[in-house]
Amino acid sequence: MDDKERVAVITGGGRGIGAAAGLRFIKAGFHVYFADLNFIRAQQFVESLKSFQSHAHPLSLDVTSDDSVMEAIDIVGKKHGHINVLINNAGITNQQPTVETSVSDWQMMIDTHLTGAFRCSKAAFPFLKGATDASIINVSSIAGAMGMPIRASYCAAKAGLEGLTRSLATEWSKDGIRVNAVAPGWVLTDLIQKDLDSGLVSEELLSSRISLKRLGKPDEIGEVMFFLASNASSYMTGQVLRVDGGLSIDLNPGNVNAVRTNS
Ligand code: NDP
C-alpha cells in the first residue's frame, strides 16, 4: 500500500461522462476504478485506454445493491488502504407521464440516483476519512433545480441528490471530506443520443435554447469534476456547480437579436 497513491472510484464509469472523467483523473496520475453495472463495457473501455491502462481498473458494481456496493468499495479500499475521490455518477433515465409511472419505476430512479449515492458514500466513508484531499462528487443535473415534463422521478431524484450533497458536506467536514456536486445541462452521451434518435428531443431545438448554442461534451464535465476534486477548490464544499452552457440562466433563450443597442 502506498499512501501517496491517489485513488478514485467512479460509478457508472463504463461510458459517457463517467468514462471521460476517469480519463481526466488518470492523466493526472490517479488510479481510477471504472465501477459499472456493465462490467464488460467497463473492461472494454479500460482496454481502449492503451498507455493509460496501468492506472485504469474495471470494477463490477450495482449502485442499487447494498452487497454489490460494499463488496466493490471494500476491494478498492483494502487494496490501496484509502480512497481519495468518489464520484457518484451512475444514472438512468425514463420518460413517462406521471400518471402512468408505477411505484416500482419511481423507486428504481430514486434508488439509482439518490439512494445509490448514499449507499456508495456510506461504504466509502471509512476509506475517504483520513485520505489526502478526500472528496465526493455527486453528479446531479440542471433537472435538480428545474422541472421537466414526463421526468418527474428523475428531477426529484436529482433534487434529492443536491440535498444529500449539502448534508454530507456539513456532516463530514470534520472528517476531512469535501462533498460537492456538478449539475450538467445537455451533454452528448448515449443517454441523450437515445432521446435524439427517438425524436423525443431535437439537437437543433435544444442548442437554440442554450447560450453557448451547443450541447456539452463529456470531457467538459470531467474537467469540472477534476476541479472539484483538486486543491484548486479546497475551500468549496456543499456546492452545486451548474455546467450547462448557460441553459439555466437565460430567461429569454434564443432571442439574442431582440437585445436593444444604442447604435
Ligand atoms: P450513460 O448512460 O452514458 O452512462 C451511465 C452509466 O451508468 C452506464 O454505463 C450505465 O450502465 C451505468 N449505470 C446505470 N445504472 C447503474 C447501476 N445501478 N449501477 C452502476 N452503474 C449503473 O449516462 P451519462 O454519462 O450521460 O450520465 C452520467 C450521469 O450524468 C448520470 O447520473 C446522469 O443523470 C447525469 N447527467 C447526464 C446528462 C446528459 O445530458 N448526458 C445531463 C445531466 C446529468 P448501463 O448502460 O448498463 O445501464
List the helices and strands and how they pair.
Blueprint: E1 7-11, H1 16-27, E2 31-36, H2 39-48, E3 56-60, H3 66-80, E4 85-88, H4 103-128, E5 134-139, H5 152-172, E6 177-184, H6 190-197, H7 203-208, H8 218-229, E7 240-243
Helix pairs in contact: 1-8, 3-4, 4-5
Characterise this structure:
- This protein has 263 residues and is an alpha/beta fold.
- The protein has one domain: 3-Layer(aba) Sandwich (Rossmann fold), CATH 3.40.50.720.
- It contains 8 helices and 7 strands; from the N terminus they run E-H-E-H-E-H-E-H-E-H-E-H-H-H-E.
- It has helices at residues 16-27, 39-48, 66-80, 103-128, 152-172, 190-197, 203-208, 218-229; strands spanning 7-11, 31-36, 56-60, 85-88, 134-139, 177-184, 240-243.
- The protein has a 7-stranded parallel sheet, sandwiched between helices.
- The longest helix has 26 residues, at 103-128.
- The protein is globular and about 60 Å long.
- It binds NADPH dihydro-nicotinamide-adenine-dinucleotide phosphate (NDP).
- NADPH dihydro-nicotinamide-adenine-dinucleotide phosphate binds at residues 11-12, 14-18, 36-38, 61-64, 89-92, 112, 139, 141, 184, 186-187, 189-192.
Give a brief outline of the structure.
The chain is α/β, with parallel strands linked by helices and 263 residues long.
Shape: globular
User: Radius of gyration in whole Å, from Cα?
Assistant: 19 Å
Q: Could you name the ranges where pLDDT drops below 50 across 5 or more consecutive residues?
A: none
How many E strands?
Answer: 7
CATH hierarchy: architecture: 3-Layer(aba) Sandwich
Secondary structure class reads alpha/beta
Q: Oligomer, anyone?
A: single chain
What does the main sheet amount to? 7 strands, parallel
Strand % is 5-15%
